[in-house]
């Protein structure tokens, strides 16, 4: 996913320091379920990002811009391939792992379809960045091997600079563009946070990881609130990088 400035990713251990690891079969099964859910939502996110960027390339004003978006799309598909292969290596059907996330992610993209080239770029940078921050928060509680894969998939593919430079150049050429794109960025933020909150609330294994480990019962609203504060701060930094007010 294309992204920019990121918040601190949280603890490097699999659990919060004040918790005792649970090595029971039930805990192992719950951890495995969380890993599969996270990899499943990431995999579907990557394949839809590939499709979206390829579609947005049609609105590009020049051949060079088309090529830049095509390169971004290729990177997303490579990430999808990594995730699909990892799921298969776990003995999981990738399509089944992705299935619970098809409707919510498709709904998000329907509600945030860009109307032009610049909106598509802002969505690729800001919208995908918000989603990546959320998934990274979850991954911060995974075992090192799974966390490393997630970090690789969520890493900037080197295209963030292209988006920032292009949007800033468009604003310099026509300052009126800034107001429209700022509103678009705020809309993306609202839609992305709503989606992340739904995922966290509806997927028990993922929400358990978010509150610091699978031994923690219930849904810790205070910890979830702190997480969304960190995501909001990272969004503000991305908007500033684009030259837009958040």
Automatic annotation (TrEMBL):
Domain Ferritin-like: 32-213
Pfam families: MiaE_2 (PF13794)
Residue segments, region Disordered: 1-27
InterPro entries noted in UniProt: Ferritin-like (IPR012347), Ferritin-like_SF (IPR009078), Ferritin_actino (IPR059125)
Residue stretches of biased makeup (Basic and acidic residues): 12-25
Protein name (record): Ferritin-like domain-containing protein
Lineage: Bacteria, Bacillati, Actinomycetota, Actinomycetes, Kitasatosporales
